[in-house]
Amino acid sequence: MDGTPLDDLDTAILAALADDARATFAQIGARVALSAPAVKRRVDRLRERGVIRGYTVRLDPAALGWTTEAFVELFCQGSTSPTTMRTAVERYPEVVAASTVTGDVDVVVQVRARDMQHLEQVVERLAAEPFVHRTRSTVVLSALVRRPDVPALPGEP
Q1: Where is the HTH asnC-type domain (predicted)?
Q2: Which pLDDT tens digits describe the chain residue by residue (157 residues)?
Q3: Region for 142 from its dihedrals, namely left if φ exceeds 0, alpha if ψ lies in -120 to 50, beta otherwise
Q4: What's the rounded Cα separation, in Å, for the pair 33 and 41?
Q5: Non-local CB neighbours of 115 within 8 Å, separated by 6+ positions
Q6: With b meaning 16 or more CB within 10 Å and e meaning fewer, what string describes 72-95?
Q7: What are the φ and ψ backbone dihedral angles of 125, each rounded to 5 degrees?
Q8: How many C-beta atoms surround the C-beta of residue 128 within 10 A?
Q9: Are 76 and 133 in contact (CB under 8 A)?
Q10: Chain centroid to CA 75: how far?
């Protein structure tokens, strides 16, 4: 991204696309009070700037059989590079997200699994990575808030 701040219309367009990436320019225009061609021009500019990197679909993990979710904290030995950590956790299809963090934990990994037995297997495999000293897991009971990448506009519910 080039660092130019987004205006309110760009932010509204991004929120509309985050809600439904298949929405037409006309549908988005109706939502943000612009014509379809004006929306298209703005979307094209947002793509050129790298703000929009692609379009995707949001799936329901439970409908696909991934009913168990957990956050697994990895405590690493020595000074393990983020590249080494990323290379390791990318190999796991169960890993939804992974981030290096501050504090005594080195990496927090969001994991989805079919059930508790599958989760246990994933945690055991993560713990067996050569750079992992120990793990700590927290199982998600219920997801209270899940938002798209674009936060709501100020004043929107």
Answers
A1: 6-67
A2: 566 788 999 999 998 998 899 999 999 999 999 999 999 999 999 999 999 999 888 888 999 999 999 999 999 998 899 999 999 999 999 999 999 999 999 999 999 999 999 999 999 999 999 999 999 999 999 999 987 665 555 555 4
A3: beta
A4: 14
A5: 67, 68
A6: bbbebeeebeeeebeebbeeeebb
A7: -65, -40
A8: 9
A9: yes
A10: 22
Question: Distance between CA 80 and CA 90 in Å, rounded?
Answer: 16
Enter the pTM of the model.
0.78
Q: Does domain 8-48 have CATH number 3.30.450?
A: no
CA-based angle 69:59:84, to the nearest 5?
Answer: 55
Residue 121's Cβ-side half-sphere holds a number of Cα atoms within 13 Å equal to 11
Element (H, E) at 82: helix 82-90
Q: Which residues pair with 134 in a beta bridge?
A: 75
Helix (H) or strand (E) holding 127: helix 116-127
Span(s) in the chain for CATH 3.30.70.920: 61-139
